[in-house]
Design brief:
179 residues; alpha+beta; seven-stranded antiparallel sheet; 7 strands
Length: 179
Amino acid sequence: MSDPSKPTANEAIDLADWNQRIIAEFRANAGYVAWSSDEEFAAGRPVPPPVPGLGEAWGIPPILVHHTGAKTGRERISPLFYQLVDDGWAVFGTHGGSPRHPAWYRNLMANPRTTVEVGTETVPVVARLAEGAERERIWAKTVALIPKFAEFEAMSGRQIPVVVLERVHGKADNPLPGK
């Protein structure tokens, strides 16, 4: 019997291909990925159609979050929507309304020192879970912008984790070995 907390082989392959296509477009366009039309999205272009009320063809620029597999130790990259938070970024473990947390969330909680790509910049960060009033403030602002996230939380039967990626300042604090 398969473990429902793990993606099937087809889901893993599809997600990896999806992410690679978004990452390539992100890097080719200095951190931006154009919204898909409904037709492009239905045909497999990996970026969702525009979020109502956000306008602009380029939509919300994603952030590329590097993370190390909690079990495998392999480096992964996940393109995510984000919200600016002080001197960092907040990302949201919606996992499309799944009852399980996304792998990137579990990986960041196990290995919080990492990097993110924002625009053309690569930034060292430390990930931490937002809790209490901080989480509610960040979550409310994001749900006001992207109401679908509230639907995902209701569908999932769990509280969606809000992860704050705090910028690391100074060379001595860089989380990457040899840098």
